[in-house]
């Protein structure tokens, strides 16, 4: 038997939106997850790279934020950022 301790175990209904779009020369495939657990943020799941992050309109504009979360270059991040402001 494994020796571990659970600190939190909750089930919550979520809303998930799947969006595939292109911006500039890049194609993006994301799942947008909304839950009370995330407060006013949206969990973005890049379905291609399997990377995820919690963002809102403020964090989208933080320098280097999308580049770091999704391991992308500055040009792709700017194209993505422009679309995400409309989508979240």
UniProtKB/TrEMBL annotation:
Any Pfam family: SAV0927-like
InterPro entries referenced in this protein's UniProt entry, alphabetically: SAV0927-like
Name of the protein: DUF3055 domain-containing protein
Organism: Halobacillus amylolyticus
